[in-house]
Design a protein that fits this description.
Elements (H helix, E strand, L loop, with lengths): L8 H10 L3 H7 L5 H4 L3 H16 L14 H11 L22 H4 L6 H9 L16 H13 L8 E5 L3 H19 L12 H17 L9 E8 L9 H5 L16 H10 L2 H7 L12 E9 L2 E9 L10 E2 L2 E2 L5 H13 L3 E6 L8 E14 L8 H13 L4 E9 L1 H8 L6 E10 L5 H4 L6 E8 L12 E15 L2 E9 L4 H6 L5 E2 L2 H5 L3 E11 L10
Helix pairs in contact: 1-2, 1-7, 1-9, 4-7, 8-10, 9-12
């Protein structure tokens, strides 16, 4: 049984004559059976040969199976218009009809016979897919891809396959489509571009079962593990350059792009250019290249894994993130680095992104239940950890330093991290501040602070952070305070505040930029000697049993 319909006979002849591979012939004939594309190339060639030979065994013109075949009229009209047609530089050359496709020699038509078409296609690189549906569907290439995947040592239970094609393939496909469209028009049959099976889709139909069998896991479009192949074809790189003259607005330099001739830019230009202008610059059908595509890269990438927990910081000489100014490191480590060092090693990730519910200054400790944090581990090789393994990892972090401790370490989803950032303005924090005053104080001088509730502050952006934050006046609330007298010049103040309150500036006033402040309330100069974060009231991540 033939893989294509009788109405496609002339299209099959046209494409094979031009050097198109059997699988691309199926694509242009709108064949949607995935199984057919998986047949060996030689078998498909043989089927197409038999299909074309069948026309030679019939007498006269083949009657195509269409509702209202206007074949004779169209042929006459086509011959009358033939004198005005351009060939290589302006329009599509005269093509053989279905009836005389296999008998071209007797009619003086330059088209090849079915046998000759088969022979010419058998050993050539496809003029449309540039060999992607030929050599790169073979078991040897599949094994090469799987060897790359296995050597990368990833954990995965399924995969998604992606392919990056050279942009000039879109140009060649357009040229082939214009030829097929003209042929179908000659036969009085419609052909929409959407009817053609896309190259990527056909390639995945062929490659997916082979990869799944070799890797031992199923293909899944929603998988977080991606196997990708990047193809290039240097021989034809310049074939899409004419589009820059015809549609200059489509080709603009972009960051991180080595060339303006990206696939999307080329597709956009092809949508704009008129058919007659396209045909003036590009042959239809496209010529056969000498060389196959190159598989430039075979890449693997695992979707990010997210780890969350809470950290305590016990050092007054440790920043939350690396402290580097003008390329010079100011302190040897940070909270972020002490945690990430172990996570990166265990998850075997390429990189990470650290985030937390607020941050403390380098000289501020974080006590109590700690501060919630999350870490995105990018492209991890290992993704599966049991609860017991996470406990051991947490213990390893805690054993490595006396400056920090981590608790409730667990795997979370990307969406769950959003809960850490929710209510940034609404959540509360509790602090403990050691305060000095220039004038002597007695217990009764600070006792009134305990009675103050919901004290509203106006805080201009502090001078110490003005270099990295915009100038603004922020309204913040001190919900409550409790004082502990120490001596005539020192007392400790416990505060429960709105998130985002600058505590140091509330104590010393920041040259009047925070009003009111402890100095103005006590009517004397006050300064802060030590500050501790005692709690961050965010109920995330979930508390784990010891």
């Amino acid at each position: 049984m033939s893989p294509v319909a009788e109405k496609d006979r002339a299209v099959v002849q046209l494409l094979l004559d031009a050097g198109t591979c059997p699988r691309c012939v199926l694509r242009f004939c709108s064949v949607g059976s995935q199984l057919l594309y998986r047949h060996p190339l030689q078998d498909l060639l043989k089927d197409l040969q038999e299909f074309l030979k069948s026309s030679q065994e019939k007498e006269g013109t083949v009657c195509l199976d269409v509702a209202d075949p206007p074949c004779k009229r169209l042929r006459l009209e086509h011959k009358e218009e033939g004198a005005d047609e351009l060939s290589h530089n302006g329009a599509i050359p005269q093509l053989p009809s279905a009836g005389n496709a296999g008998n071209a020699g007797n009619a003086g038509n330059p088209a090849l016979s079915g046998n000759t078409a088969l022979e010419s296609s058998a050993g050539r690189v496809c003029n449309v897919c540039l060999g992607i549906l030929q050599e790169f569907c073979e078991p040897d290439f599949v094994k090469k891809v799987c060897q790359k995947v296995n050597s990368a040592d990833y954990q995965f239970t399924s995969f998604v396959f992606s392919v990056s094609l050279p942009p000039q393939l879109s140009v060649r496909e357009r040229a082939a489509w214009l030829g097929v469209k003209q042929q179908m028009r000659n036969l009085g049959l419609p052909l929409a571009k959407d009817d053609i099976v896309q190259l990527k889709e056909a390639y995945k139909w062929i490659i997916h079962p082979q990869l799944a069998e070799e890797l031992g896991v199923p293909a899944d479009g929603k998988s977080l593990f991606e196997v990708s192949v990047v193809f290039a074809h240097p021989e034809t790189d310049e074939e899409c350059h004419f589009l820059a003259t015809a549609c200059p607005d489509c080709f603009k330099p972009a960051k991180n792009k080595q060339s303006v001739f990206t696939r999307m830019a080329v597709i956009k230009a092809l949508e704009r250019i008129k058919e007659e202008d396209f045909l003036k610059h590009f042959p239809c059908p496209p010529s056969s290249p000498k060389n196959l595509c190159d598989a430039l890269e075979i890449q693997c990438n695992n979707g990010a894994v997210f780890v969350a927990g809470r950290y305590n910081k016990y050092s007054r000489n440790l920043p939350q993130t690396p402290w580097i100014i003008d390329g010079e490191r100011k302190l040897e480590s940070s909270v972020e680095e002490l945690i990430s060092e172990h996570l990166m090693a265990e998850f075997k990730a390429d990189s990470f992104n650290f985030s937390s519910s607020g941050r403390e200054d380098v000289d501020v400790r974080t006590l109590g239940n700690g501060r919630p944090f999350a870490m995105e581990l990018v492209n991890p090789r290992r993704i599966r950890f049991s609860a017991e393994e996470m406990k051991r990892l947490q213990q390893a972090i805690n054993d490595s330093s006396d400056k920090i401790q981590v608790r409730d370490l667990q795997l979370v989803t990307r969406s769950a991290i959003g809960r850490m950032k929710e209510g940034e303005e609404e959540k509360t924090k509790t602090y403990s501040a050691l305060i000095w005053t220039d004038k002597a104080i007695q217990r009764e001088d600070i006792a009134f602070l305990d009675d103050i509730k919901e004290l509203r502050l106006e805080q201009k952006t502090p001078l110490r952070v003005l270099h990295r934050r915009p100038l603004a006046v922020r309204c913040r609330l001190i919900h409550s305070m409790r004082s502990e007298y120490i001596d005539q010049h020192h007392f400790r103040l416990h505060l429960r505040t709105q998130a985002g309150t600058y505590i140091k500036e509330f104590v010393h006033g920041d040259f009047g930029r925070t009003k009111p402040n402890i100095g103005s309330l006590l009517n004397r100069t006050a300064d802060i000697l030590e500050l501790d974060v005692e709690s961050v009231d965010v109920d995330w991540p979930p508390t784990l049993a010891d």
